[in-house]
Structures
1.
Amino acid sequence: MTIFRIVCILFTVLPSLTAAAKADDLLIWSPAKLSERSYKATMGFRLPAEWETSAGADIALAATKSGAPLPDSEQAMLWGRIVRTNVTPAGQSQRGVKVSVDTLRGSGALTLSRSRSWILSDSLDMQSSRSVSVGYDPIDARQASVTASQALKLIHPWTGTSLSAGAGLSNVSGDFSSSVAVSQTILPNLNLDASMTNPFSEDEAGSVNLRYRLNW
């Protein structure tokens, strides 16, 4: 029996556990069929506390019509996360640590993050986020890397308009990147987004997108 057939059996049997997983919020089980012959699942557990702790694995696999796994399609990612959230009448803040390890390729990353949202005035809200990530890739020429990023978003909740700006710095290339974006809610499920990366530089690039979201 091939690995792909075993995975198919698991995805056939294990969804019966989904109801139990939803009943018990401590369990994480999220299977998905990405295409006719590709599957992905996130599984793990969470421990509610002042610092919420969760850990688990992301597993994915794709195969040919004959049932043989496609080269480089396997994924076996172990991850762990610790998050603390503070909520006040004026806003919310969150601090977290996340670690991930690719067991098949030997790469990994450790990310420290912090975010905050608060009421700036009667008509404006503000969001800020910062993160620092330390990565390791045994295949890359520079195996260790550090990436830092920061973002700010100004929101007008009454009109659905938001303006955001972000910046990042990576020690691998030594490049500094920046971006600005504007988002406007046209209808409850329809948004117009415009963004620009690295403005006022040779690598300047922009995009405009119209997004429609449908839930059922």
Note: The radius of gyration is 21 Å.
2.
Amino acid sequence: MSDTVSFGYADVSPDEKTAKVGEVFRSVASRYDLMNDAMSGGMHRLWKDRFVRRVKPRAGEVILDMAGGTGDIAFRLARSGAAVTVSDINAAMLEVGKERAAKKRIEGLSWSEQNAETLSFEANRFDAYTIAFGIRNVTHRMQALKEAHRVLKRGGRFYCLEFSTTLWPGFKEAYDAYSHRLVPKIGKMLAGDEESYRYLIESIRRFPTMDAFKAEIAEAGFVQAKVEPLLGGLVAIHSGWKI
């Protein structure tokens, strides 16, 4: 395992990355929707709707939504009648999710503080594992993917929604300019936090290509690994099955 991992454009020790990512999400927890609006131009809501349609949650299923602290994905999954466990390494994010669930009167969710790399759940427990805009913040990505595989039942499905790199000429350059120059400034203006927003943009640039990440999913033991690009790959839905 490498002695360093990426934190935005910097290379840091694994422990330092875990701590720094924790600081970022403690900082942005109360402004999570604002953060996603800034990074996606408000389109994250449509992407999350599409993502959950791909998961196809069903009543009676047991689903783990990892890095899902504020509940955006879990609330959508719960409409199906599935039993959803919302897990996040960051307690501040989970508190925001619990408050939002109470306001929306969404019941039946379980909340669990968990590190994606070392889940406390028993093997073969869940019908589906979802992670949206969280995998790029994990310190050791392959470890997290293997844990996802372990806790899924045979026939269970893995779904990941994550920013990637759009392949559309022209649009790629325009989004790069917007994200690098404007998003941190928006973070400073609206949230008083330029550095957290800068990290979040840089972390996207350090994330593997769609095909490279699909290969990692297969390496972790999943079969039929697939990727569905959105906006040419600006965002992608990756999936795989455990058999």
Note: The mean pLDDT is 87.
